Amino acid sequence: MAMNIFRLCGDMSHQFAIVLLIVQLLKAKNARGISVKTQELRLLVFLTRYLDLFTTFYSLYNSCMKFAYIAETVAIIYMIKFWEPIQSFYNADQDSFPHWKYAVLPCSLVALATHLIGGGTRNFDLMELLWTFSIYLESIAILPQLLVLQKYGLVENLTGNFVFFLGFYRFMYVINWIYRAHTERGYQHHYVVYTCGIVQTLLYADFFYQYCRARCRPGRATGGDDNDDEEKAGNLVFEFVGTRNHGGGGGAVGYTAGTESLLTEHSDPSLVVPSPANNEDMSSSEENDGSVRQR
Fold first, then answer.
1. What global pTM score does this model have?
2. Among 22, 66, 116, 153, fewest CB within 10 Å belongs to which?
3. How is this protein positioned relative to the membrane (predicted)?
4. CA distances (Å), 80 to each of 36, 57, 74, 85, 280, in order?
């Protein structure tokens, strides 16, 4: 399959998002506002989707990007779970979404049902089943990350950029599918991929709204004077609780609980992990080149 500008932009956006997250971990020396469970789900997506690395060679670009996604995601998980001082500052209470029970298991069952309905037991193909599973799982893999941001409330600069470019990558792939459908002869549509891609993009919609609104405002309120120094340094983007308050005032973006209650929540040491600087005691080539397996 020939490269097009939309697919290339999607791949570069995806790669840029991952690099931003790694930079965030190395710079901040903590995993504040980052979900390791989303990273575990993404790693499972890559491992089940890219099994063709061992069976089929499409292009050097394709292979390098796939290896990069796997290696970088493994590195992120390792830093958050095992590398000090990031490990000590990872807050599992915030990252509490039961991803194996409510993401992996349902996607496994839906993928199995889809595969059996589509081909039956006689045409059972394990690699095709795992690929279908990866499509379903990727569509909801961002949920733990969005829930962590909702609990934490304050979206930091690099973390916000990571989520934004991750969503932008999927949006560009949706455009890529539309473009290919109108320009490639014999293009085979895959409606499971279309549906999951649209669902995944919609999950980012509220975050996109708040992110763009905060970026466009000259003064981004973070809810209190205690955070002024951090905001001036560019560490905070906006407050995020997952529900937009269209009638809110004072320049704050994306919260409904009120500034006072939000600051009270962040004063709870059990919910907010302190920065290492403040505590001396103390982280596409993605689609197969065949026209049926699109990402």
1. 0.78
2. 116
3. Multi-pass membrane protein
4. 7, 33, 10, 9, 19
- Give the mean model confidence (pLDDT) for residues 200-226: 76
* Residue among 252, 282, 254 nearest 269 (CA): 282
Euclidean distance between CA atoms 80 and 25, whole angstroms: 8
CA distance 28 to 275: 8
Q: Cα-Cα-Cα-Cα dihedral of 126, 170, 256, 251, to 10°?
A: 160
pLDDT tens per residue, range 179-189: 998 898 888 88
Residues 6+ apart with CB under 8 A from 180: 1, 4, 187, 291, 294
Write down the pLDDT at residue 289: 46
What distances in angstroms separate CA 137 from CA 142, 190, 209, 261, one per listed residue? Answer: 10, 16, 24, 34
Give residue-wise pLDDT tens across range 229-265: 444 444 666 778 664 444 444 333 333 333 333 334 4
For residue 79, list its beta bridge partners: none
List pLDDT tens digits, range 51-98.
999 999 999 999 999 999 999 999 999 999 999 999 998 999 999 999
Place of tokens 């000259």: 218
Long-range contacts of 222-231 (CB under 8 A, 24+ apart): 222/154, 222/252, 223/154, 223/252, 223/255, 223/259, 223/262, 223/263, 224/259, 224/263, 226/263, 227/154
